[in-house]
Amino acid sequence: MQYHRNGFNPGNYQIPDEVRKPYPNPPITDLPTEVDVLIVGCGPAGLTMARQMAEFGDISTCIVDLEPGPLLFGRADGISCRTMEIMEAFNSSEMVVKETYQLRQNSFWEPDSDNTENIKRSHKIFDARIGLSEFTHGIVNQARLHELLLEGMKHSVTGLEPHYCRKLMKLNVDSNLTQDLDAYPITATFERSDTEEQGEQEVIKARFVVGTDGARSIVRRGLGIELKGDSANKAWGVMDVLVVTDFPDIRVKSFIQSKDHGAVMLIPREGGYLVRMYVELDLLERGERAASIKLTENDLIAKMQQIYHPYTVDVKEVAWWSIYEVGQRVAERFDDRSLDAQENQIPRAFLAGDACHTHSPKGGWGLNTSLPDTFNLGWKMASVLQGKSHPKLLQTYAPERRKVAEQLIDADRQLSRLVATQPSAKQLSADQRKTDTTDIEAFMARQNGFIAGTAIGYYPSYICTGQENQELAAGFNIGQRFHSAIALRVADGRQQHLGHLVKADGRWRIFIFGSTHNPCDAASDSGQLIEFLANDPASPVVRYTAQDADIDSVIDVYGVFQQQDLAIENIPDFLWPPGGKYGLRDYEKVFYGEKNNDVFDLRGIDRSRGCMVVVRPDQHIATILPLTAHAELAAFFDEFLLATDCN
């Protein structure tokens, strides 16, 4: 797809440039006085949390933001493979895939040894992340991703929409009520910022609050949580521009380092014409902020043009620009519990996204770390609010995501040093300036799984266990996301990405990867497991599913088998169960491996023994068990799920 040919125009890219218009700011409606979940901030973390909570009609959610309406342009642009997988869980990946620039190559430019005033391409390589996922790392306006999340919220069962023009003035958490799950310990006071009712105050009481209100988070300050880490010592400019140039790699992600004028990191943008440029500026004095640097967009353009010499870059339009400082900090806590809190204390207030980790934007990690924060938290909060899980499940959010934030800060610190030509001191001699791009290439190769988000894993815990069985499926790493692969559906022969079956609906998944024994044989290992899951009182499916609910409403079970000649009518009923008010059969739960692209080979599954792979609602692998481990499977779910009153 091509757009922005005659100038940058934000909005829905499915509408032609000539008639596309920015969305008008939505009307302002009164805030509710009491909700289950209050979300402060409409960035990627906040909207992902809201998108998840919107799936549950029995949970009341309110999301508020200071701005008068949705984001239109600027900010983040990179969409990692893992973020694309999450968007697939929200049934929104197809539009992202269609509209994004797909990042396939990287080029590296250094001073020309024959004339160091010029730059020269040293080499070009394929992007290291290709093949880590069925999705490709993409580049698209953050506002467009927001729009897709907002559309999903609006068209959900709850019809959830944000409340804009609200500034959080005060947040209070009543510690006397935090252990009572039915209580509303959160009191938030907001002030209207629209012209009609400017200054009017509104108060909301909530059972839980999630602060996704950015690096200067008022929620974080209200909870008394500090950011720890390095202060900024380096300034960069960033701008989205439409250019006419003779630079040959204008449509390739490029790392460009000049001898004397600094560095540029170029990111091609969606639509075929727009590009983003990160321009290295001077180092900051101690305590100096980027906001105090008196530069204009023309200064950034002039600096960029010096770096590109001898190529010309004629900027025709600047869609957005900003100056920022590089600093890496992470919050000491991600929830309202003190560091010495009692083991049984239930967290009621949470931080996510830039509210709890700040860094440079060059690695594309801001959005791609913020969004998974609340993808992790959302299903846990919903499960607790619905009475399906023990409240202690909420304690797992902070340690899981804080580990990722610490890894992010370390990686960003490394990348920031590598990309810059003057990384550590304001006065550098010519031979001290760094212009070697091979270190950047090595870093990208070494960190490719983390950058893509596909290698991010969680510590062993009661929802990440079974490491002793890892060899049963070596390619499904416990704690990491379920790495999708294609299988064929028994009922109709259709190809299906197994990972796309794990939707953001709060349900757990069990994938039965069968052994060499035919699952249609009741005496086989798969047959006995299916019988246990369907009928045994100890079965987690039986124990935790209400009698009047569909059998797969809490735990959704799939079968993936090696036998090529299976017939759906011979498969046990449990794997093609009736559901809904008419009892219609579900024919989309049983698969077999392709001959030439077999999931058993791709993911290192032990063919002789098979295994169970239990996948969390956030698509991360919770445990791997032998097919015969019925009691162990029951014990896993018994640790945190709560039996229904209906059984």
Topology:
Layout: E1 34-40, H1 44-53, E2 61-64, E3 78-79, H2 81-89, H3 93-99, E4 101-102, E5 105-111, E6 119-126, E7 138-139, H4 142-154, E8 166-173, E9 186-192, E10 201-211, H5 218-222, E11 227-229, E12 234-245, E13 253-257, E14 263-268, E15 274-283, H6 297-307, E16 313-326, E17 329-331, E18 349-351, E19 357-358, H7 365-385, H8 397-419, H9 438-446, H10 448-452, E20 486-489, E21 495-497, E22 508-513, H11 525-535, H12 540-544, E23 555-561, E24 578-579, E25 584-585, E26 590-592, H13 599-602, E27 611-615, E28 621-625, H14 630-638
Parallel strand pairs: 1-2, 1-10, 5-13, 10-18, 22-23, 23-26
Antiparallel strand pairs: 3-7, 4-7, 5-6, 8-9, 9-10, 11-17, 12-15, 12-16, 13-14, 14-15, 17-19, 20-21, 20-26, 22-27, 24-25, 27-28
Helix pairs in contact: 1-4, 1-7, 2-3, 7-8
Description:
With 647 residues, this protein is α+β, with helices and mostly antiparallel strands. Helices cover 22% and strands 24% of the residues. The chain is built from 14 helices and 28 strands. The strands form six sheets. The protein has a seven-stranded mixed beta sheet, with helices on both faces. A seven-stranded mixed beta sheet has the order 21-20-26-23-22-27-28. Strands 1, 2, 8, 9, 10 and 18 form a six-stranded mixed beta sheet that branches. It starts with 33 loop residues before the first strand and ends in a 9-residue tail after the last helix.
List keywords for this structure.
alpha+beta; seven-stranded mixed β-sheet; 14 helices; single chain; 22% helix; 28 strands; 647 residues
Helical proportion, percent range: 10-25%
- What portion of residues belong to β-strands? 15-25%
Shape: globular
Global mean pLDDT: 91
Biggest sheet, spatial arrangement of strands: 6-5-13-14-15-12-16
- Number of distinct beta strands: 28
Radius of gyration: 26 Å
Low-pLDDT residue intervals, each spanning 5 or more residues: 423-432
Structural class per helix/strand content?
Answer: alpha+beta
Biggest beta sheet attributes: 7 strands, mixed
Report how far the terminal alpha carbons are from each other.
53 Å
Helical stretch count?
14
